[in-house]
User: Fold these one by one.
Assistant:
Number 1:
Amino acid sequence: MNLVGLLFGAMFGFVLAAGQLHDYDTIHATLRLESFYVFGLMGLAIGISLPLLWILERRQITTTFGGPLSLSRSKIEKHHIYGGALFGAGWSIAGTCPAPALAMLASGATYGAVAVVGLFIGLWIRDRQLEAANHAIREGDGERSTLPHTKTLGAR
Amino acid sequence: MGLLPDQIPWWIAGPLLGLLVVGLFAVSNQPLGASGAYVQTMKTVRGDSDSVSWRVFYFVGIFIGGAVATILGPGVSIRTGYTALHAAGWSELAIVVVVLLGAIVMGYGARVAGGCTSGHGICGTAQRSPSSWAATATFMAAAVVVTFLLTSFTALGDISPAVPK
């Protein structure tokens, strides 16, 4: 699974960098509504993957390393909204987001490192906050890395 | 090296990302997210027993893939990556502080929301998750509003970004 992770990460980073999604101007031209690039890209990515995942789900396929395919669909809660609002604000200010920040640094943009460090600090602050409040840290639908039936995934 | 164009069109990059999302689900039952990879990498560095190792390889993979595409395309050029902010007359210190603070807010928000542009924005929406659609709509709207404020009230408004095709 580690090799699978490396390969998928590499293909992901490749597409992001080939599309210049790590470029401040690409992001800001879209967020200024002067370009359709990022909206079109995300729309097509969803347009391709949503129906295909739906078909795979209906066919109840078994994944190679993760057991039966189980897509997660959580109900909307307040934290999705205010977390999203904070994320969007940070995305605009830093002009990059988590995966593109890595590709940005890889392309030679030195301040990509500042963004990567900032991201780690932000995630860390939230986890400390939940720990201090004795709250269980739950994984959202976008960040899940383990599932109940795939607990040993990381060990493979 | 110029083997790749400097920027591939969105109608090629979008479907490729979509296929990668489906591929990772089909192989491992996991979303092609990024903030989760940061979380697992942080846990691994801290030595937590419940860290997920493949996400760390995935994290490193994103960097490697980004480097390969850059080498095949426009080539690696050492720069800050914030030409627009320099052009707007911001000092080096101001840029570093603003980018750092922006990234902290972004990381915090991603962890509160449970995903980022890829995790919620593409993988969660493709899973037909209501929470992901809500988070995505919110961060898109927030980003457009904050960008409007930045261009309205700072010198960034005088700088035109290069508009991709």
Number 2:
Amino acid sequence: MIISNTQEVPGKTIVEFFGVVSGSTVRAKHIGKDIMAGLKNIVGGELKGYTELLSEARGEAIRRMSYQAEEMGANAIVNVRFATSSVAQGAAELFAYGTAVRVE
Amino acid sequence: MELLSVAITPLMLLGAWISGTVLQRRHLRTLLVLESGSREVLAVTIEEMPPDWRVASCELVMGNVVISQDYFKRIAATIKGMFGGNIGVYEPMLERARREALMRMKAVAHARGYDTIINVRLETATLASMRGDGKGTAGVEILAFGTAIRLAEGSDRRFRGDPRFLPAA
């Protein structure tokens, strides 16, 4: 599965469109990491626990999106976009969407 | 006991200010070192490549960072916010977060053997407050992403004057 955020897959041509595919996941941090981040929030700087959490969650959203594209018979997803929203206290939704295509 | 509770807030503010400033300086120094070594990977925001670039493979690459402001600067920003205008204390924080995210994206691309990243985009998201009272943000996430490409054997990144990119005569 080739994933790209450009209009076309560089070096390949699109031969078939399958439509929009998307994947999302809602994640919350566990309490230990939350407390650590709370302390880190006083001195400022990077909140590593959150960085990891969000990058893992985004990976999961991409996997779900790829799975959906595979089911349709696509071999690439183009024009991928991301959206992040805070749905509840301490939880975030990571959403990835794009267009499933077949390239040659 | 009274005295302790009166003294604790200024102490916390002072501590936050000092450590926040030290962390910021250290981060800026690391960024300079990282950026000087990141020239092998070219990151551009253009969507289409010059047509004579022949691409062997491509992949989506990302770099993210969640950063938070220290307690002292948050208070300072709140006070400044009452008067409006430039909130200077937030600018360096966001700037170094963006630079860090770009560096991480480039590092991922470099590790996987790509030499160029096209269509680079930067996104900012505020994370929900983690305190019950709804005060204070948990931080800001900066995400940098783009399509990493590896040029085919014999192709290089040199620009040879594509008419589409030249100014009208």
